[in-house]
Write a structure and sequence with these properties.
The chain is mainly alpha-helical. The protein has four helices and two strands; from the N terminus they run αααββα. It has helices spanning 5-14, 35-49, 62-76, 96-108, and strands at residues 80-84, 91-95. A two-stranded antiparallel ribbon has the order 1-2.
């Protein structure tokens, strides 16, 4: 019934499931000594690795796709800024220089912001 902490620790460390005794492998494929199982697993691995994944057809027209690619390229080059303007999902695309001008104008407005000294 009532084992001391020392006895419980002894029992736990003698368990085959104790963390110090687990032999964990980093491979996601289990290993087996049975030849038949090894052959089956090898075949399944081969089939999985050589599966053709179906291409997902885009619902964008070619023109929309070109526009999307252009937007991504311009955002990456930091030439445009795309933002949501309200909760309804409307978006706005602005030239980055215009965004910087708007931000500076707002920050310089002492009615909105007070400089910290």
């Amino acid at each position: 019934g009532n084992q001391s902490e020392e006895q419980q620790t002894e029992v736990e460390s003698d368990s085959p499931w104790h963390a110090d005794k687990l032999d964990l492998q980093s491979s996601m494929w289990p290993t087996f000594s049975d030849k038949l199982l090894d052959d089956i697993i090898s075949d399944i691995k081969h089939q999985v690795n050589n599966m053709d994944t179906p291409r997902i057809k885009s619902n964008l027209t070619q023109r929309e796709h070109r526009g999307l690619v252009w937007c991504k390229r311009m955002v990456k080059k930091r030439e445009i800024y795309i933002s949501r303007v309200d909760k309804g999902g409307a978006m706005i695309i602005l030239n980055t220089k215009d965004v910087e001008t708007i931000i500076e104008s707002n920050l310089n407005d002492t009615k909105k912001y007070v400089p910290i000294e």
